[in-house]
Amino acid sequence: MSSNVTPNEPVITSYAQAPARTVTAGGVTYAYRELGPKGGIPVVFFVHLAATLDNWDPRIIDPVAKGRHVITFDNRGVGASTGQVPDSVEAMADDAYAFISALGFDTIDVFSFSLGGFIAQALVVKHPELVRKLVLTGTGPKGGKDIEKVARVTYWDILRATLTRSDPKEFLFFNRNPTGKAAARAFVNRLGERTVDRDAKIKTKAFQTQLKAIKKWGRSTPDDLSKVTHPTLIANGDNDRMVPSVLSGDLHRRIKGSELIIYPDSGHGGIFQYHEEFAPVAVEFLGR
């Protein structure tokens, strides 16, 4: 493990300043960042479609990193990680497992968003002993209704964003009303807070392969989530156009004892729009 920390070194709790690191496993070099106090069970963040290390909202990461060792990473073939993007969610989960094992962890908490939530579910189904707690946001179960339509919605919104010279996430993650538009701009601005050592953008081919994997996930037979006994927190906005909000309720019903939060007047990025309310809830859940 790459912990060259001297005892009196100050703990970094700002994602904008988190050092970029790499670890190699199975011939793939994974890019990751870590922050927060070392020791204890780390919280590993699983990111969304087309996203790199630069796509995490610091208003979600920083509060968690105040008290926990936080790790964000690029899956194989994404951003600064080497190799090719796999064309199935299950293979992405295998890569995540290889990455976590290479860092030497045998127990983690998982914070996931969107595609990251699919990968997190696949990981928990395959390696239930690895995960202690699970946060699933803006996501849905394998074989969930309309997940395979994500590609269509995504391409349409990328087109709309291109025509208005804005970030596609403003369309994909937020409602197009005054509240949503303001939240979208604030979110995109926060993603720009890190000014040094930024990640490589995702390549078009990698993005298209991720979409293929999502389509396959949406068309597959559902996993038996009744086996998931981990404490689970599920959250979304009430108007998610990418991974329909009803799927959060579906997950909640399938995972016994899970907690569900649906934020009003918000979309796929509900947790980012409501970060002031959501971050303390996530911190409390993970710290329980």
TrEMBL record:
Protein name according to UniProt: Alpha/beta hydrolase
UniProt superkingdom: Bacteria
Domain AB hydrolase-1 residues, every copy: 43-272
Keywords: Hydrolase
GO molecular function: hydrolase activity
Gene3D superfamilies in the cross-refs: alpha/beta hydrolase
